[in-house]
UniProtKB/TrEMBL annotation:
PANTHER family: PENICILLIN-BINDING PROTEIN 2B (PTHR30627:SF26), PEPTIDOGLYCAN D,D-TRANSPEPTIDASE (PTHR30627). It comes from Companilactobacillus kimchii DSM 13961 = JCM 10707. Its main location: membrane. GO terms for biological process: cell division. This is Cell division protein FtsI penicillin-binding protein 2. The keyword S-adenosyl-L-methionine does not apply. It is found in: Cell membrane.
Amino acid sequence: MTAFSFILFIQRFAYISVSKQYDGVNLEKRTKAKYEKVTKVNAKRGDILDVNGDMIAGDSTIYNIYAIVNHKSKTATGKADYVVDKEKTARMLSKYLPLSEKQLIKYLTPQNKKQYQVEFGQSGRNLSIEIKRKIAAQKLPGIHFVEFPSRSYPSGVFATNLVGITKADNANDQNSNISGVMGIEKYFNKLLSGQDGKKITKVDFNGNELPNSQVNEKQSIDGSNVYLTLNSKIQQYAEILAQDISDKYEPKNLQILVMNAKTGAIEAATQRPTFNPTTGKGLANSWRDTLVEDQFEPGSVMKILTLSASIDSGNYDPDELYKSGSVEVGGRTISDWNNAGWGYIPLSEAFPRSSNVGMVKLEQRMGSKTWMKYMRRFDIGTKTNIPLPGEVAGGISFQHTSDQAMTSFGQSVNVNTIQMLQAFSAIANDGKMIKPQIVQKVVNANTGKTTQSFKRQVVGQPIKKSTAKQVQKAMRQVVTKNYGTGLVYNIPGIKVGVKTGTAQIASPNGGYLTGNNNYIFSVAGMIPYNDPNYIVYITMRQPQKMTESPEKILSEVFNPLVKRLVNQGKSQTNSTQAGNQYVEVPSLLDKSTNDSLSKISNLKLQSGVIGTGNKVVQQLPASGEKVMPGQRMVLLTNGAMTMPDLTGWSKNDVLKFAEITGKQVTTKGDGYVVKQSVSSGHVINDSGKIIVTLKNK
């Protein structure tokens, strides 16, 4: 029996030796896995840059801070690796984290004796490299950091919803990849991500890497770089103007677009509400790119297309008289914005007066089939296929006679903003319709070669050259005729042509909303009108503080923006020194407070200092951002966090103060600060809510 068992054992052993299998387990693979360590090598995510190569989004690293509170923890040299002095640790951390000493001591006090480490909630996450270095320099026992891959947006709020943001695939994994979840980051995610590599090393029984062990490595392939058509000089200015309007009039939505009329390159695109891609502030109210993801009734800017179709189809008689005021169509009364009308007027005045009745007459004269044919030629109801995710196609309501008539003045038809910009391009380019472009090129980061290039693309010719010229002249009359609706847009020395728009907003209960601010107000402009270099399109929905006429409000964006465009030259390739009108914010971190204040003054900027320290530990705006002269830089120093004198600060300045301190600040009124609930010099760590009162000068 013993001999038989021995024979069976030998046979079993031989089988295992040859097959390397035992109970279905591959022993060779199992051993290999046990003594080999496979590590993922993350590919560098590609950069997103503007047309001149300035960084918009790039690879970065963020840090989470934690504290070891278990007294058994030691360093490799036997020193204490836990929080030895809670009070000192809390005092030092309060200089860099938006938490008071009292709050920090509470965090540093473990709930039970077995607790090994503590974190500091949201206030201890997503720290920058600057803050991490500052804290690490204090050499506080027990304070450690976890490093995570991240994305840096050095320009702050900069076409944010269009550029997009990323998120970690696994927020708790240090080796996690990040993926785009909005805008360009999402659309080009695969190209930007590249391909991860891997590293295989030999390890001992305990998992430690063996010295001089063989390393088999699969190289990672870095992601491609995406160059946008955005021009930082124009984009930054558009952001400043947008924020001013948003603060003063509080529209529910605001969009500003600037397109190179010759090439279709979008040089600026912004919206409000928006969010800060670094802090995430405002993200909950702005989780989409409204430029392509929202559809709306465009209102009277649609009359540009109606007039074009009427002229091009041979149905336009400028001298024909019609009775303005109102008209019955399909059992529905359609009225002019001036309900009384202007009596009998020629059709040539319908466009500059923005007469709905006049446009209905044009639609009826050419017929609904012809009008629909031209709307299709202008690609209304069709996606532009611009490389941005989530574009909506819009649509045309054309079932009833009244709907057909209403499309002539921009109701009963839904569009997106980029779609309208494309349609306007036909007027600017002798009838040729140019596709809007947001991406200039894609470059392989490993070879430096351009793999994709986006050039001027004609997508159709809905109208003749002669028609385009007539419509250009009509747009000029909107700002030059004494009865034009766009007189406020007449800029001395600049030949501007525009069309104004006021669109009703559909009510969820049927019909349209009522009230003088429940509209989408807009202006579409060509600069210069007779040979456009630029198309500017601005829309504003439901301003909550309509203290000025809608035309006046929009002119506060349109007019200075147009002046800036003209002053900087005809295109981004031959722009003048317009960039000198901006100030690029330097890095003042670690600099002395006095030297920083001198530098800010020399840059023709205002300053505000929080704290009593002699060194700067945080700043807003961040280094690399571009601001207009006269803007305020807010500095946080390494001393006790004390309240500055906010007298004369703007609301934007107060928001910077709130962001850099992490304090709850409530503002009352508009204009500039005249009163603050916490007096200057007071330590604000435990001050609670701060109330700031503003008044217009």
